[in-house]
From TrEMBL:
InterPro entries listed in its UniProt record: CheY-like_superfamily, OmpR/PhoB-type_DNA-bd, Sig_transdc_resp-reg_C-effctor, Sig_transdc_resp-reg_receiver, WalR-like, WH-like_DNA-bd_sf
SUPFAM superfamilies: C-terminal effector domain of the bipartite response regulators, CheY-like
GO molecular function: phosphorelay response regulator activity; transcription cis-regulatory region binding
Residue ranges for the DNA-binding region feature of this UniProt entry: 126-223
PROSITE patterns xref list: OMPR_PHOB (PS51755), RESPONSE_REGULATORY (PS50110)
Keywords attached to this entry: DNA-binding, Phosphoprotein, Transcription, Transcription regulation
Primary role: May play the central regulatory role in sporulation. It may be an element of the effector pathway responsible for the activation of sporulation genes in response to nutritional stress. Spo0A may act in concert with spo0H (a sigma factor) to control the expression of some genes that are critical to the sporulation process.
This protein's name: Stage 0 sporulation protein A homolog
GO cellular component, one term: protein-DNA complex
Native source organism of the sequence: Irregularibacter muris
Any Pfam family: Response_reg
Keyword Transcription: yes
Entry-annotated residues carrying 4-aspartylphosphate: 52
Domain Response regulatory, first and last residues per copy: 3-116
């Protein structure tokens, strides 16, 4: 089931869109706190965003820019400011399409379905994992923190993936080693320690101190 993320501050319009799109079998979430748009986006991990321009706190162009820093998810702008300047600006900021208000719900649905077909018939879905402001994109194995992309080795990525997929849980060293080397054969325990030390140093270099916690006698975790 595809997930659609609606960023629209007019509650009547947002609920109308939500109810109509859900009737077509999609899962839909509307933003409620417009200071937490990126937090909600990462938690929901949608396959498409419907984004208004005029919003409380920050406008849609701002949120489009923030989303584009971490994701290539398709974004359709929906706005009554549908003059040529705003349409051009929306596309230049990273939008994929533009629908002017007022609009027909059937036109909205057709554009949503077309965008999903074009995007996901040939491309896998994006999956984002977030912790303490660090965003791990499992589609392209990158980590972004404070707008900086951090280069990860294969082992760096696998360690972060297993820990961030299990936030709040201690993961044993054996489990991590099996994920890293995909074998039940004996691996020198010190090898994991070396990999972990290098990864922690890399995280600290960009300000992520104490990101990975050692649980003595058990393993590691992020919390």
């Amino acid at each position: 089931m595809y997930k659609i993320f609606i960023v629209e501050d007019d509650l009547v319009i947002a609920r109308t869109m939500k109810n109509h799109i859900e009737s077509w079998g999609y899962e839909v979430k509307c933003v409620e706190d417009f200071r937490r748009v990126m937090t909600d986006f990462i938690d929901f991990d949608p396959q498409l965003v419907l984004l208004d321009i005029s919003l409380p706190f920050y406008n849609g162009y701002h949120w489009c820019t923030e989303i584009r820093k971490v994701s290539k998810v398709p974004i359709i702008f929906i706005s009554s400011a549908s003059d040529n300047m705003n349409i051009v600006m929306a596309v230049n900021m990273g939008g994929d399409d533009f629908i002017g208000k007022p609009f027909d719900l059937n036109v909205l649905t057709a554009k949503v379905q077309a965008m999903l077909r074009r995007t996901y018939d040939f491309v896998g879905q994006t999956n984002l994992l977030e912790h303490k402001g660090a965003i791990l994109n499992t589609s392209d194995t990158t980590l972004i923190y404070n707008d900086e992309k951090i280069e990860l080795t294969k082992n760096d990525y696998k360690i972060l993936q297993v820990l961030m997929e299990n936030k709040g849980k201690a993961i044993s060293r054996d489990t991590i080693m099996t994920r890293l080397w995909e074998t039940d054969s004996y691996i020198d325990d010190n090898t994991l320690s070396v990999n972990m030390s290098r990864l922690r140093k890399k995280l600290e270099d960009v300000g992520l101190y104490g990101f990975i916690i050692t649980k003595k006698g058990i393993g590691y975790m992020v919390e």
